[in-house]
Amino acid sequence: MIVEIITPDAEIFSGNASSVKFPGLDGLFEILDNHAPMVAALKKGEIKLLSEEETLFFDINGGVVEVLKNKVQVLAE
After folding, report:
1. pTM, 2 dp
2. How is domain 2-76 classified at the architecture level of CATH?
């Protein structure tokens, strides 16, 4: 799936991933390939992204994630 992580300052990640874990308002949740469409609010915490080559971590102060047609877009603070 395609993942984009965007902050007010810059796009900090754009590429393919097999799994992404998010700090949701109600707890941690994970997005995998072909996930159902959804929108969720994020709280302060860490995004864990598993790409084909490596595992990446991004600290955020909150934001929103949208999943649609195998594309994950994150608007993070």
Report:
1. 0.90
2. Sandwich (2.60)
